[in-house]
Structures are given as C-alpha cells and as structure tokens.
Write a structure and sequence with these properties.
The chain is an alpha+beta fold. The chain has helices at 2-21, 25-44, 51-61, 160-173, 178-192, 195-213, and strands at 64-67, 72-75, 79-85, 97-102, 105-113, 116-122, 129-139, 142-149. 45% of the residues lie in helices and 25% in strands. Helix 1 (2-21) packs antiparallel against helix 2.
Length: 221
C-alpha cells in the first residue's frame, strides 16, 4: 500500500513539472485534470502503518500459513469432536488459538506456532450446531474443537459434501443387475485411473468384444 502511494506521488510531481512547461491551453487543461485526479487518489489512499506496528503485526502472524488437512473426529450424544495434532500448541498464548463458529461451519486459526500460521475450515456441516455451546480446548500437542449438536442425533459424517459423495458412490454400485454394477465400477476405475489402469481396462474390453463376436456373454464399457 505504501508503494502505491509513493508511485502516485511521483506521478503527481511529474504532472506538476509538465504544467510549468506547457504553453497550450488544451494541454494545460488535460494536465490540470490529471493533477486533480492524482491528488484525489492520494487523498483516498489508506494511511501507512507505522513501521513498528507493521513489524509487530507481522511477528504476531508468523511467517506463512499452512492449511490443516489431517484430523480425527468422533461424537457423543451432544458433541462432534474434531482432533487436530499440532506439536507445541499448548505453549502458545490462548488468544493465538481462535475458532469461529456459525450454525453450519467453523474455522480454526492458530497463529505463530513455530513461525507459521495454521488454518482449518469446515463448511456445510452435516447438521446445525449451537454457536454458543461450541468451543475449543488446547491440550498437549493438540487442539480439540467441540461442536455442540443442536439435536442429539448421530451424524454419519461431518459435512453435507461427504454425505452426497457417499450416496453417489453407493448408488453407482447399488443395482439389481450385478453386471451393471460391475460396469459402473469399471467406468469409475477407468475415469480415475492412471494410464496403466486405462490400458488394462481397454485390453479387457477388447478381449470381451472378441468373446462377444464368438457368441460369448457381451460386455460393454
């Protein structure tokens, strides 16, 4: 932000210098318009932070941010519990471990742990939670996020996205025709497989077509 303000100031100085040399009215009008525009932009720039304040903020936030992907979870009648392992987290000031809850989400921010920030976000939780009843606990090398259930019922997974993914996968294999289920499985393997997997499936398909031409059971992919 300070660099942008400095560049605008340099542009303004140059426009002022050109104004002292411009003789034609049209050119002076253009330069005056540009001068007013630059002065307004500089005025609207946010004030620069004092250097010591900027350094203090940088220090409090650590070096860079790491997204947390590994966690464990379980549940009781009243709570969903998410366990996040972070070495040495118990040594941080309590205010450096923050969790913000909404009815269907939460995000965790751990600031300046060994020179790094750590974040984790869960959106579209499977069911609503109580914001007021949810909390976090700091344990040895671990943060425990406790989401208070609004209704005391079992959750089959953590998020709506996970549930939809499981339902789609189940639907792909749940069929009254066993051969159709096999076809769905092979299609999924082909779509998600590497080149070697695709060559193997293609080979099986060619062989099945050859068998079909000889009167054996057909198989289409």
């Amino acid at each position: 932000m300070a660099a942008a303000r400095e560049e605008l100031q340099k542009d303004l100085e140059e426009v002022k210098e050109l104004l002292t040399k411009a003789m034609r009215k049209r050119l002076r009008d253009v330069l005056m318009t540009e001068k007013h525009k630059l002065e307004l932009e500089i005025k609207n720039q946010p004030p620069s932070k004092p250097k010591d304040a900027a350094e203090e903020e940088k220090s409090s936030l650590g070096g860079y941010t790491v997204k947390i992907n590994n966690y464990g979870w379980d549940q009781s009648d009243k709570f969903i519990k998410i366990y996040i392992s972070l070495n040495g987290v118990q040594k941080l000031p309590a205010e450096n471990v923050q969790v913000n809850f909404t009815e269907r989400s939460f995000d965790l921010l751990v600031k300046n742990l060994n020179g790094k920030n750590y974040t984790m976000t869960f959106n579209n939780l499977l069911k609503p939670i109580s914001v007021e009843g949810s909390s976090r606990k700091i344990k040895t090398d671990m943060v425990l996020v406790m989401c208070r259930k609004k209704r005391e019922e079992k959750w089959e997974c953590l998020t709506q996205v996970e549930k939809e993914s499981k339902e789609k996968e189940k639907a792909a294999y749940d069929t009254s025709d066993p051969s159709e289920g096999l076809m769905n499985l092979l299609k999924k393997m082909y779509a998600e497989g590497d080149d070697e997997m695709k060559r193997t499936i293609n080979k099986a398909w060619v062989e099945s077509r050859e068998k079909q031409s000889k009167g054996d059971i057909p198989m289409d992919i």
